[in-house]
Amino acid sequence: MRRGVCLWQLGQSIIRSSLSQPNGKKAAAGAAATAARRGFASDAELKKTALYDFHVENGGKMVPFAGWSMPIQYKDSIMDSTLNCRANGSLFDVSHMCGLSLKGKDCVPFLETLVIADVAGLAPGTGSLTVFTNEKGGAIDDSVITKVKDDHIYLVVNAGCRDKDLAHIESHMKAFKAKGGDVNWHIHDERSLLALQGPLAASVLQLLTKHDLSKLYFGGFQMLDINGIHCFLTRTGYTGEDGFEISVPSERAVDLAKAIVEKSEGKVRLTGLGARDSLRLEAGLCLYGNDMEQHVTPVEAGLTWAIGKRRRAEGGFLGAQVILKQLEEGPPIRRVGFFSTGPPPRSHCEILDAGGKGLGEVTSGGFSPCLKKNIGMGYVKSGSHKNGTELKIVIRGKTYDGVITKMPFVPTKYYKPS
């Protein structure tokens, strides 16, 4: 699943002081090590979210990220932030991501030409992870989409993919409308996005709204008032924990962030992108630009479950011929998770079989603050992807032992009907 670009190189100069600290902080900071796909920008070129001053006031260490100035961590270490999210909760500013609405009586059939999900099959007020594909079946981006109503779809795309995603959607929308299709869009640049994650997320948020959140399950969506502010609320997230993404008018974003932290009595902490990356890796979730690329299909990425049953039968989305063939015959490569010894694995480290032959490469890796061991994801040749398969990971010219294991590494705690 979603979200963003490189953290490791971007954060090195900021967190170097914490790398030398004991108790695993060096390794925990390494969990943010995802390879940079975009260059550095000067401070003047960077965009700032509505919470920028709030981050700085609270000790946020700001780094360039997908064209934005974003906090990689606050006063606590990345390891401590990760553990606190699992034990209590975290509040992330994810306003750099792009929310948009598609409206019109044909918005569902239009979107289904671009994504693998069975959008028509979603009940109003529910959503799903999906993938935008290209003509070769590759992933343009992943996104969480929600059917608000039959004529209104709300979706969020990744910050680093915003320009190409919007250009892609717009070009296909023009062609669709030229044939008489009824669909329009609105890009929600007037809104900010907060992600509240962790076991205290629901109880804290419930203190700020009259709506019964116990009836809103994972993937559910509502428009409701939170702390007196009209918000879009989706029960989803990028940590493996229960939680919410809250779209709020930007002028009220700081007020809402303060209220959430205060209602939690400090147990829900402001958390940066470093811990966000270690949390999503522990949950076995894809990071676009690392674990998914335009040459990787959803089948290869292990997202077959996101292709609706009807879509498998009918196709109708870009690259369907390639993807449906892989469903039938199997893909040439597969995304796997693994444990490893030695230094934490990094993107582009070579993966070998037990005999030293090349199998593929690492796409994400680091030290798990929760498991206290190295974890990673990568792609290997089909046939060498079974759990328990022994590997060798090449790091700076030396090989270290690894073994393929099932994901998620840390059990997910999504809130679903019992």
From TrEMBL:
Sequence ranges assigned to domain GCVT N-terminal in this UniProt record: 51-309
Its subcellular locations are: Mitochondrion
Give UniProt keywords alphabetically.
Aminotransferase, Methyltransferase, Mitochondrion, Transferase, Transit peptide
Per the record, the domain of life is Eukaryota
Entry's Gene Ontology BP terms: glycine catabolic process; methylation
Enzyme Commission code(s) on record? 2.1.2.10
InterPro entries tied to this protein: GcvT, GcvT/YgfZ/DmdA, GcvT/YgfZ_C, GcvT_C, GCVT_N, TrmE/GcvT-like
What GO molecular functions are on record for this protein?
Answer: aminomethyltransferase activity; methyltransferase activity; transaminase activity
Q: Which reaction does it catalyse?
A: N(6)-[(R)-S(8)-aminomethyldihydrolipoyl]-L-lysyl-[protein] + (6S)-5,6,7,8-tetrahydrofolate = N(6)-[(R)-dihydrolipoyl]-L-lysyl-[protein] + (6R)-5,10-methylene-5,6,7,8-tetrahydrofolate + NH4(+)
Q: Which residues are substrate-binding?
A: 245
Q: Choose one Gene Ontology CC annotation of this protein and give it.
A: mitochondrion
Q: Ranges for the Aminomethyltransferase C-terminal domain?
A: 334-410
Query: What do we know about how this protein assembles, alone or with others?
Result: The glycine cleavage system is composed of four proteins: P, T, L and H.
Q: Which NCBIfam families does the annotation name?
A: gcvT (TIGR00528), PRK00389.1 (NF001567)
State the similarity comment: Belongs to the GcvT family.
Q: What does this protein do?
A: The glycine cleavage system catalyzes the degradation of glycine.
* Protein's recorded name: Aminomethyltransferase
